[in-house]
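Q: Could you fold this chain for me?
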Amino acid sequence: MAAIKKMMYINRTAPHGTVYALEGLEVVLIGAAFEQDVSMAFMDDGVFQLLKGQDAGDTGIKNFAPTYRALGDYDVQKLYVDKVSLQERGLVLEDLQHLTYEDEDEDYAEKPSIRLVSRQELSVLMDQQDVLFNF
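A: Sure. Below is the predicted structure, expressed as structure tokens.
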């Protein structure tokens, strides 16, 4: 049996206009389905991927933002959002989707998946990973 690897998916691109964000999310779901230790980081324009009320408009790309709500079902519980990237774009935590997971260790209590982190904290988290994927 293969060892579980710690994998972080780093999302730096806006959700619409390219396929990077959608493909990144699909790869996350695949990795989680194979029981890897998956986390996601959102920095730069990647923070827009988690915005509430997205509309893909005329981009020709399906609005996949609701798919983020399924991450908890795939045991993806660690979504790290860079505080500075959020602030630079005039956003606050309340502008993002309310994403949760059920904590099996606490009688399936619903807990938030999104954690705001400093760039220094994010750097430490990245150093702890076996594999980093950039989208």
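A (continued): The longest strand covers residues 6-11.
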